[in-house]
Amino acid sequence: MRWIYVVSAQRLKQILIIVTAILLAAGIGYAERDNIAAFSGINQAPQAIYKVDTKEKKIALTFDISWGETRTVPILEILKEKNVTKSTIFLSSPWSQRHPDIVKRIKEDGFEIGSHGHKHDNYSKYTDEEIRSQIGKADTIITEMTGKKPGLIRMPNGDFDKRVLQIASDMGYSVIQWDTDSKDWTNPGTEAIIHNVLSKAHPGDIILMHASDSCKETHLALPVIIDKLRQQGYEFVTVSELIAGTDVKSKEIH
Question: Which of 33, 45, 46, 183 could form a disulfide with 169 if both were Cys (CB 3.0 to 4.6 A apart)?
């Protein structure tokens, strides 16, 4: 016996609309799979941020401070003289405790304050509990001194592994690295520091510099770096402003 199915034009139209909608939704889901994963957190391990992908000429000057008492204020003075009102400064908590007046000035000058951890050591060699303890100590001290919990952290020596990233994320932190290293920490000479920055700086860049006493030439190179970047049309922003609403570039950690 043969069965004959009769489908009306209206019913066929309804079926085609449903099938088209399903295919369209599947296509959108595939195209946006990375964004969906990032939003939901599924299969998206915490990663360190090195730069952002933007065509806007925005750039973040960042300074790490972990030791000394003679270099920070001159750098703050240069930023003030050059009218750089936005920068991100990562403070180690022991240094902060020893220099509350400078921490107060950094806050009053309006700079973004991030954590640089407690003990200046490679946390990747620590146990999970020790990592939490080091990040937690710095969190408590910096929060008490500034009245605001930092949301960014740059690990001492820029050292981390997957465990450090995960624990920092669980504690409410984004780990910030850099894409341009001034290498001021090697004291290579003022001209070399200037070249290291200007030859690599690009839109969305995070630039690493230091305001610790071990870096003896940063304050000499900084005025030129600021002037030259401005001449190239760059706007100085904080790291948080840089990464807000942009395509953050991170690196896979194995």
Answer: 46
* Of 72, 81, 48, 90, nearest in space to 179 by CA: 48
Q: 116, 118, 210, 219: which is the annotated catalytic residue?
A: 210
Please indicate whether residue 254 is annotated as part of the active site: no
Spatial neighbors of 151 by CB under 8 A, at least 6 apart, are 114, 172, 173, 174, 240
Distance, in Å, from the CA atom of 82 to the CA atom of 77, rounded to the nearest integer, reads 9
Prediction pTM value: 0.81
Angle separating helix axes 190-198 and 218-231, nearest 10 degrees = 30
Averaged pLDDT for residues 78-88: 98
On whether the CB atoms of residues 153 and 115 are closer than 8 A, the answer is: yes
pLDDT digits (tens, 9 = 90+) for 117-155: 999 999 999 999 999 999 999 999 999 999 999 999 999
Q: Where are the domains of the chain?
A: 9-40, 50-250
Question: Per CATH, which fold does 50-250 belong to?
Answer: TIM Barrel (3.20.20)
Q: Say if residues 153 and 135 touch (Cβ distance below 8 Å).
A: yes
